[in-house]
Amino acid sequence: MTIRVLLADDQALLRSAFRVLVDSEPDMEVVGEASDGAEAVRLTRQERADVVLMDIRMPGTDGLAATRSISEDPSLAHVRVVILTTFEVDDYVVQSLRAGASGFLGKGSEPEELLSAIRIAAGGEALLSPAATKGLIARFLAQGDADDKDPVSSERLAALTVREREVLVQVAGGHSNDEIAERLEVSPLTVKTHVNRAMAKLGARDRAQLVVIAYESGLVRPRVE
């Protein structure tokens, strides 16, 4: 299947560069370009995009608001948003993940990283793999005020089985299903089943949301560097 990609950035030159790169791949195509968040949401619906590469800072409706609009629309439940940012450290990054983004990527990333990010997001995985990225998310979540936390209660976590909690901790550590299977001495299929059940019980769209929930609920504590 071809991955349908929407580009949302207010810089036409960047969009053009991304289009050339994406369209050069046999398994993906650019189905639209947006210069602001409102247009991104409209085109996501209209063009039935699978993955949206979303800039955070755009005039009018910004990428954060657009991401939230997409994630809250039941008809767009299949859409994955990858946030593009020029900043390594950006509070909007965690806000975007809370709003429903599947991960984020620096605009200075290598072409191969961008293409890999699209495939990872389309496959439902969390684009949180570099250790520095996970550490960044953890720091922001640790700095947030209690009132600013996502109210994922211990009551909802209590719905998880012991094994599902163990798997959630591993997911929060950025480990793949194969890695978790090896660590817990079970099959990758069993891990996938536990991950899917945890997402259903916690109302998470994908693995990225599970990572946020694990930190915000206190199940996983951020490391102090």
Automatic annotation (TrEMBL):
Chain coiled-coil ranges: none
SMART domains from the UniProt entry: HTH_LUXR, REC
Domain of life: Bacteria
Residue numbers bearing the 4-aspartylphosphate modification: 55
Domain HTH luxR-type: 153-218
InterPro entries: CheY-like_superfamily, NreC/VraR/RcsB-like_REC, Sig_transdc_resp-reg_C-effctor, Sig_transdc_resp-reg_receiver, Tscrpt_reg_LuxR_C, WalR-like
Keywords linked to the UniProt accession: DNA-binding, Phosphoprotein, Transcription, Transcription regulation
Domain spans labelled Response regulatory: 4-122
Residues spanning the signal sequence: none
PANTHER family in the record: TRANSCRIPTIONAL REGULATORY PROTEIN NARL-RELATED, TWO-COMPONENT RESPONSE REGULATOR
Annotated protein name in UniProt: Response regulator transcription factor
Organism expressing this protein natively: Streptomyces pseudovenezuelae
Lineage: Bacteria, Bacillati, Actinomycetota, Actinomycetes, Kitasatosporales
